[in-house]
Design goal:
294 residues, 4-stranded mixed sheet, alpha+beta
């Protein structure tokens, strides 16, 4: 199986996967196989290139070439041939702020339109057992249509309440979000928290700052970690982390502790373990794996 395409499939671990790819490549730098050996791979995984150079007895230039080559290999060769279609997020509604007024426009393609066919309407107006049966089904259909309509009325109220509670979002985007939970919206609308939770589950909205899942607006850093007793939205913290990583020195990337310090300078008091959690949720590698060999 390991001889099949793409190179690297059928490997028992990451080291073997990379070794299978390098073994088929006649252009692989000399010493690559030794670098991917069981004895040396832990140094490669942690990006300890200086230690690897000493272990292999190679000059730094040769190790830098090997490092660049290994980073160009595919750790998930099967992903080159995806077996599933890409699923795109289609927002359920568009929310805009125009002249201080909040406007919500539904995506008509996603809004079901329920009606009863005329033929069944006519049969239901006759007499007999069939008519009684159809009338009972019509009552069920009426109940379903009212329930769907009520569902969308509730969702519209919840969306409006969310953005009324987040006025800073329009001017600052994710930076302007403040902590908010389900109870805040439930109390504001006189609903149960579970009703709000069901209403926002799996729903997306398009805004001037992008498309977001509604339930993401309820995520927040615990108040105990926030400075000044105010708290901070997890979306805001994630946005700053992504910005810091994008602008970091690739030869000396920020550790989680350093990211926490940089966040603190911006008024966001976040624990290192929380930074690590958000970094992983953003699919950002650790500092040792982000380090580039210059």
């Amino acid at each position: 199986m390991q001889r099949l395409e793409p190179a690297g499939i059928g490997a028992r671990d990451l080291r073997e996967c990379l070794l299978l790819q390098a073994g088929r490549d006649p252009q692989a730098p000399l010493g690559t196989a030794d670098a991917l050996s069981e004895a040396c791979f832990p140094l490669v995984a942690r990006g300890r290139w200086e230690a690897l150079a000493r272990r292999l007895g190679l000059p730094p230039e040769a190790v830098r070439e090997i490092a660049r080559y290994i980073r160009g290999l595919q750790p998930r060769p099967g992903s080159l041939h995806p077996g599933e279609r890409t699923h795109y997020v289609v927002p359920d509604a568009e929310v805009r702020l125009e002249r201080g007024e909040l406007l919500i426009r539904w995506n008509a393609e996603l809004t079901p339109r329920l009606t009863v066919q005329d033929g069944y309407e006519r049969l239901g107006r006759t007499d007999g057992e069939a008519a009684a049966y159809l009338k009972s089904k019509r009552r069920g259909a009426d109940w379903l249509m009212r329930a769907v309509e009520q569902r969308y009325r509730t969702l519209k109220r919840v969306i409006a309440a969310i953005f009324e509670e987040q006025p800073g979002f329009w001017g600052q985007g994710l930076r302007g979000l403040r902590p908010m939970n389900l109870r805040t919206i439930a109390d504001k609308l006189g609903l149960h928290e579970s009703t709000v939770s069901r209403a926002v589950n799996g729903k997306y909205v398009r805004t001037c700052h992008g498309t977001f899942e509604l339930k993401a607006f309820f995520a927040a850093v615990p108040l105990a970690e926030s400075g000044g007793g105010g708290g901070a939205s997890s979306l805001e913290v994630k946005s700053v982390i992504a910005e810091l990583v994008a602008g970091e020195n690739k030869g000396r990337p920020y550790s989680d502790e350093k990211l926490a310090q940089e966040l603190s300078k911006r008024g966001l008091q976040v624990a290192r373990r929380t930074v690590a959690k958000y970094r992983e949720e953003l699919h950002i590698l650790s500092s040792s794996l982000r380090k580039r060999v210059l």
